[in-house]
Amino acid sequence: MAVLAVLAVLGTPACAPRLDLGSEFLWSAQHETGDLSEWLEGGKGGSSADTPDTSLAVSTDFAHSGKYSVKLSNAAVADYETVRLWRQDSYPEEAYYSAWYYLPQAYVTTDDWTIMQIRAPVPEDPTVVSQFMDVDLRSLPGGDLIVTVFDHRPQYLRAATPDPAVPVPIGSWFQIVVYFRNVADDTGRFTLWLDGQLLYDLRRPSGFNQTVYFTPCSVSEDLAPPASVLYVDDASVSVGQVGSSTTP
Q1: pLDDT at 19 exceeding the cut of 60
Q2: Which domain covers residue 87, as residue numbers?
Q3: Global pTM?
Q4: What is the per-residue pLDDT across 110-160, written as a single tens digit (0 to 9) for each?
Q5: CB within 8 Å of 140: residues ≥ 6 apart
């Protein structure tokens, strides 16, 4: 399958050539333009940062493929602050949302550290984008950071953490893939893999709006050390699986 070949390219060193994503990819951002033009293309995306404590920049510090990634910096202390990228569109009911992340060091969280959001317009007012599904990092007592999922609807909230918990790597790239079946009945799904390992498979209604805001981000407060850095690269939305293990 062509998409599996793409996965092999995604795993190559930083000197890899530009990726050939194939026809199953609806959108991607590899940042080899040295800017955020892939996110902004067609007026369907953007970026924002709560200054002065957060910032966003295309960087050559680390890259999953090619030369560039996006550096998200967040030094919020007293209150949650946000730095984010987003890409919005009327995506198909079933799609895969993927991004690669790099943490140059470990951090200790006091609460959720959100690194990906699936958001949607409020049905009553499409100019307002709601919080919906968050992918978070949380610290364990031993110092590991694990991935958790939070649904902002009061009947769901935090999903049960897998047992045993699976830590994210520090100092190497890791991939988060979400399969989102965006329908309003009980066949709705939010399935998440970390580096091809299934962590969550949540089945619940979700299709209150077909417009999806795919949002890699850094939303945090009171991390230790307080000035956090998170890198994002090779983000994509596709209609086919993005790895041999990511089949819902």
Answers
A1: no
A2: 2-238
A3: 0.89
A4: 999 999 999 998 877 877 888 999 999 999 999 999 999 999 999 999 999
A5: 146, 165, 167
Task: Confirm whether 180 is domain-assigned.
Answer: yes
Q: Give domain status of residue 219, yes or no.
A: yes
The residue type found at 141 is P
Q: How confident is the model at residue 241 (pLDDT cuts 50, 70, 90)?
A: confident
Q: How far is CA 66 from the centre of its chain?
A: 19
Number of domains present in the structure of the chain: 1
* Structural domain includes residue 31: yes
Q: Is residue 99 within 8 Å of 178, Cβ to Cβ?
A: no
Distance in angstroms (rounded) separating the CA atoms of residues 71 and 63 = 10
Amino acid occupying residue 158: R
Domain CATH for 89: 2.60.120.200
